[in-house]
Amino acid sequence: VHPMTQLATGMLAMQKDSAFTSQYNAGMKKNEYWEWALEDALDLVARIPVVAAYIYRRTFKDGKVPAYNSRLDWAANYAQMLGVNDSEEFKECTRLYLM
Predict the structure, then answer these.
(1) With 90 as the cut, is the pLDDT of residue 16 above it?
(2) Where exactly are the structural domains of the chain?
């Protein structure tokens, strides 16, 4: 399966956790849509690196993704999950790209 198909499927699988959907089903007002859409967007930004790393490792490597390390920053964790542990240059470029 193509990696972009896997990414789309992963994002759709997260829909069950959507704050917007739960608030919409609870009858939120139209002027509140933006708040819950923003909440879902921020959740996606936080989750996508893990999903992308899993897809990369599943497609091109052994399929095993290391656990998230709370002592590392966002970029270093992403690099670790991709399997690029020894390249500080890659981590720095990732920091610049992701921020």
Answers:
(1) yes
(2) 1-64, 66-99
